[in-house]
Description:
mainly alpha
Amino acid sequence: MIRQLLAADDVRSRAKVLDDSRTEILASCSKALASVTDARFTAQRALLEECVRMIEGGMFSGAQALAANVWDTFVRGLAFANPAWLNEKGWWPGYAKIKQSVPTVGADDDATIGQFRRAAVFLPFAQTLEEFRRQHPVPEGFNRHATAHAAGAVQYTAANAAIALMLAVSVLREIDDQDYPVQLHA
C-alpha cells in the first residue's frame, strides 16, 4: 500500500488506494490500539476503537469527526506538556505555532532513530493543521480545520476518515510507546 500511495499523483488517486486498503488499515489500527498500555489513554483508545467500528459500518463522517477530535486532544495535550510549544504566557498559541513546534528532521541533520521516528509521526501535522480561508475551496485531503468548520461532502470522505483514524492512532501509539510528556484535559 505504501508504494501505491507514493505512486499516486493526486488526492483522488491516494483516496482510491486508501479505500482499496481499508480492511488492512482497520486491522492495523486495531492492532496498534490493542497495544496501548497507558491507563491515562483508556478513554481515547476506546473512542478510536469506536472509530474503527464506525468505518467498518460505513459511518465515515462520524468516524472522521471523532478521530479528528481525539487527535486534536492529543495535540493540545502534547502542547501543554511542552512549554516551548506554548506562547510566552504558557497559553495555547494557536495552530500556526504548533505547526512550527512539532519535531522535524532536516536533510542536513544527523538524526538519531528516535528523532527520525518522532519526525515521521509528526510530519503530517503541517498539512493537517493548515488553515483555509473562505475565499479558498475546501481542501479535499484530510484537514483538521476543514473537518471542524467545513462539514460537507468535499472534506468528509471515506478516505479522510481513514486518514484521521490513522493519524490519531499513530500519535496515540507513539505517545504511549515513547512515554512522551502529555497533559490531557479530557
